[in-house]
């Protein structure tokens, strides 16, 4: 009887462990699938889809999306799409993307894109400064 209970317990333990492992793998693959679909969305012909996909890639902090977002920031005809690409690149915090946003703040042909890219980049710099110097937060908050 003891052997039977032990055997049943062991089988249940193995089944539950396998199920938990499968769920973790499933979540990871879902995330990768979502990321891939959003990158496809950034390369779409639909402007609204491109802007929305860029936003969600920034929220996900997708490292795979840096190059498509950089292309979007450089080549888009719509200033709204360029602005969303700049914001997403700032959220991802990849050095290449940050450099492009910094350069966009200086040299972009659209004034609105230049302005907002500059604001995004300055906010990023302020955040990094406050992370390194938390004692300055009260002083800066007074402005």
Q: What keywords describe this structure?
A:
0% strand, elongated, Leucine-rich Repeat Variant, mainly alpha, 143 residues, single chain
Kindly describe this structure:
With 143 residues, the chain is an all-alpha fold. 83% of the residues lie in helices and 0% in strands. The chain has 7 helices and no strands. Helix 2 runs parallel beside helix 4 (79-92) and helix 4 (79-92) runs antiparallel to helix 5 (95-107). The mean pLDDT is 91.
**Would you give the CATH topology?**
Leucine-rich Repeat Variant
Domain count: the total is 1
- Assembly context of the chains: single chain
CATH superfamily: Leucine-rich Repeat Variant
Please indicate the percent range of residues in DSSP E strands (runs of 2 or more).
under 5%
Calculate Rg over CA atoms.
Answer: 23 Å
Question: Separation of termini?
Answer: 76 Å
Arithmetic mean pLDDT: 91
Q: Could you say which structural class the secondary elements and strand pairing correspond to?
A: mainly alpha
Order of helices and strands: HHHHHHH
Describe the main β-sheet briefly: none
Total helical segments: 7
